[in-house]
Structures are given as structure tokens and as C-alpha cells.
């Protein structure tokens, strides 16, 4: 409870910041997207990682407010980058189950898009498989509304939750993110290799782009590229970067 109060106060006082992890095209190496990842600058010397606060925030409605802040912040940042003439790439924002079940999400997005005037496709919502399946029929309705706004939709952590292929077919998605648990032992575990290969084929068959998360080695990268994976995200290419560093990357326009 003390932590929850500190988080609320931190949100009011502007202590949250976003880091951005770049995503690169496997074919030509170009920057094609980023994932926004939240950090809590609790004191000037203490930067708290999501492991230290997301779970607590998710136990209450605090995650709804934090999540709304992240969506508005990314929209505002995209507008800044556009005004400065930087290259524009979609930014993925993680959305928790509680946010999806909250009626305000569509309105938060509509406002953020309206206030900034950014192309909606520059926002991409990342929803985990588990969230999507919590109340799949309700989530389909939500995703259709989001889709109508023009924002992008990714399934995050694919393969770690319970999914139903019947639902996957009905969700209006753009992208599937292979969880790093499968990427990790790709080069040595033939079962993980088979799962990843099949996931890429499945996603492409459904018309979705595939992002591999947690790519850390050249061997993993080579395997993924050879099997047609579209996009790479992981420490091999870049860690999550603070705003100034990622802005320099967009300036270079690569
Ligand atoms: O940044 P890091 O790699 O430590 O992130 C750890 C976890 O925290 C990830 O699973 C990520 O989904 C979650 N996370 C990071 N930022 C956000 C956010 O803005 N909203 C939500 N709901 N989860 C986030
Ligand atoms: O759960 P989610 O898919 O949102 O995960 C994002 C998390 O993955 C962030 O905490 C990010 O820091 C982490 N991450 C990104 N790239 C790598 C990587 O190459 N290796 C590992 N171990 N974690 C990574
Ligand atoms: Na994510
Ligand atoms: Mn993930």
C-alpha cells in the first residue's frame, strides 16, 4: 500500500519516463519500430525498472492511469519527433489486462490522437496473449474499436499464454511478437526452433508481421532471418534507450 501511494504520487509529480527499445528489419537492418518501456525515476539517483512497480500497479486501477499516461506520452513524443522532421516509426505501448477491460481506453486514445494529430498507425498497442484470452469476446470488440481508430495492434509474449487459434483468427491484428523464452535456446533446442519456425509460418499465413523478442546472439539472429522473421528486437541490436539516445537514432534517419 505504501508503494502504491508512492507510485500515485510519482505519477502526479511526473516521475515516470519512457525508454524506447529499437526494432530493426531483418532484411535491410533499418529501424522500423520501437517498444516504449516504462521506468520510474523515483529519486534523481534511483531509476526503478518495471519489475519493481508494474505488478503492484496492476493490482489496482493505478495501471489504468499509468497506462493512459504512457499512451499520451508516446503520442506527444511522436508529435515532437514529427515536428522536428525526424523519421517516424511506430511505437509499441504495453497495455495491461485491466486497461483493456476498462471502458476509458478507447477514449484515452481518441483524445491522444486528437490532441496531437499524429497518424494513428504511429501508435501500436501490445496486448499479451493472456490478456486477449481473459475475456476474448470482449477483447475482440475492443480491438475492433481500436482498429477503427487506426492504431496498430500486436500480440505480445506469443506462445507463453493460452491461445486459441480460433480467436487468433478473429482478432484484428497487425503483428505477433514471439516471446523471448522461445528465442533464447533457438540455436540449441530443436523444439524451440520448431516452435519459432511454425509461429513465423502461422503469422505470415494470417497476414501478420513477426517480431522476435530477446534476440541476443548472432546465431539466433541468423536463424530468424533465414526463416523469414520480419523484425528483430533484442540486446544484440540495442537495449532500451533513453529519449535523447533514441532521438539521435531517429535523426540519423537510418
Ligand atoms: O523494461 P523491461 O524490460 O524491464 O520491462 C519489463 C516488463 O514490464 C515487460 O514485461 C513489460 O511488458 C512491462 N512494462 C514495461 N513498460 C510497461 C508499460 O508501459 N505498461 C505495462 N502495462 N507494462 C509495461
Ligand atoms: O514483456 P515484454 O514483451 O513487454 O518485454 C519487454 C522486456 O524484454 C523489457 O523488459 C526488455 O528490457 C526486455 N528485453 C528486451 N530485449 C531483451 C533481450 O535481448 N534479452 C533479455 N533478456 N531481455 C530483453
Ligand atoms: Na511488450
Ligand atoms: Mn513480450
UniProtKB/TrEMBL annotation:
Residues 1-254 form the EAL domain. The chain holds residues 675 to 928 of 936 of the full protein. It comes from the Bacteria. This is Diguanylate cyclase.
Amino acid at each position: 500500500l505504501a508503494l502504491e501511494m508512492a507510485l500515485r504520487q510519482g505519477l502526479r509529480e511526473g516521475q515516470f519516463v519512457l525508454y524506447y527499445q529499437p526494432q530493426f528489419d531483418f532484411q535491410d537492418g533499418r529501424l522500423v519500430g520501437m517498444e516504449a518501456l516504462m521506468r520510474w525515476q523515483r529519486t534523481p539517483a534511483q531509476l526503478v525498472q518495471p519489475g519493481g512497480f508494474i505488478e503492484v500497479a496492476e493490482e489496482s486501477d493505478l495501471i489504468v492511469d499509468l497506462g493512459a499516461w504512457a499512451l499520451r506520452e508516446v503520442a506527444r513524443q511522436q508529435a515532437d519527433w514529427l515536428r522536428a522532421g525526424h523519421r517516424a516509426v511506430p511505437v509499441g505501448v504495453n497495455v495491461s489486462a485491466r486497461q483493456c477491460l476498462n471502458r476509458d481506453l478507447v477514449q484515452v486514445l481518441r483524445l491522444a490522437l486528437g490532441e496531437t494529430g499524429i497518424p494513428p498507425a504511429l501508435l501500436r498497442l501490445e496486448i499479451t496473449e493472456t490478456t486477449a484470452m481473459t475475456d476474448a469476446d470482449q477483447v475482440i470488440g475492443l480491438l475492433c474499436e481500436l482498429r477503427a481508430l487506426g492504431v496498430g495492434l500486436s500480440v505480445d509474449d506469443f506462445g507463453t499464454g493460452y491461445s486459441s487459434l480460433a480467436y487468433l483468427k478473429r482478432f484484428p491484428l497487425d503483428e505477433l511478437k514471439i516471446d523471448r523464452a522461445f528465442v533464447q535456446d533457438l540455436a540449441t533446442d530443436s523444439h524451440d526452433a520448431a516452435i519459432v519456425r511454425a509461429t513465423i509460418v502461422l503469422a505470415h499465413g494470417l497476414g501478420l508481421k513477426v517480431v522476435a523478442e530477446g534476440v541476443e546472439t548472432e546465431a539466433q539472429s541468423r536463424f530468424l532471418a533465414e526463416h523469414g522473421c520480419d523484425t528483430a528486437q533484442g540486446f544484440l541490436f540495442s537495449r532500451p534507450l533513453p529519449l535523447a539516445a533514441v532521438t539521435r537514432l531517429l535523426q540519423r534517419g537510418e
